[in-house]
């Protein structure tokens, strides 16, 4: 009798977990971006170290591209 109650409890927990997983909002799920939404970005070469950096991350100082503010400061001194 005791084993039947435990087995029933396990079945109920598994069913509830499956229902929650199927119909519940899962915040962990990430939206997958389509290849069209990501456009290639131009790369710029750091004047100080030569590293290539995406244009959106480049630091411009005195019309020269740098990979970080530290390199811009060190090259301009």
Quick summary:
The chain is of the alpha+beta class and 77 residues long. It has two helices and four strands.
Query: N-to-C terminal Cα separation, in Å?
Result: 83 Å
The value of Rg in angstroms is 28 Å
Spatial order of strands in the largest sheet: 1-2
What share of the residues lie within helices?
Answer: 25-40%
Task: Determine and state the CATH class of the domain at 42-77.
Answer: Alpha Beta
Second-tier CATH architecture of the domain at 42-77: 2-Layer Sandwich
Largest sheet: 2 strands, antiparallel
- State the order of secondary-structure elements, H for helix, E for strand: HEEEEH
Low-confidence segments, given as residue ranges, are none
Shape: rod-shaped
Q: Which percent range describes the beta-strand content?
A: 15-25%
Number of strands: 4
Mean pLDDT, as a whole number? 85
Question: What is the SS-derived class?
Answer: alpha+beta
CATH fold-level assignment of the domain at 42-77: Wheat Germ Agglutinin (Isolectin 2), domain 1
Counting H and I runs of at least 4 residues, what is the number of helices? 2
Give the helices and strands, then pairings.
Blueprint: H1 2-23, E1 43-45, E2 52-54, E3 59-61, E4 64-66, H2 69-76
Antiparallel strand pairs: 1-2, 3-4
């Amino acid at each position: 009798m005791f084993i039947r109650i435990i087995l029933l409890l396990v079945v109920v927990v598994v069913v509830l977990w499956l229902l929650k997983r199927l119909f519940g909002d899962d915040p962990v799920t990430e939206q997958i971006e389509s290849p069209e939404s990501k456009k290639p970005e131009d790369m710029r070469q750091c004047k100080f170290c030569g590293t290539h950096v995406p244009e959106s991350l480049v630091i411009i100082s005195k019309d020269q591209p740098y990979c970080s503010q530290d390199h811009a400061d060190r090259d301009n001194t």
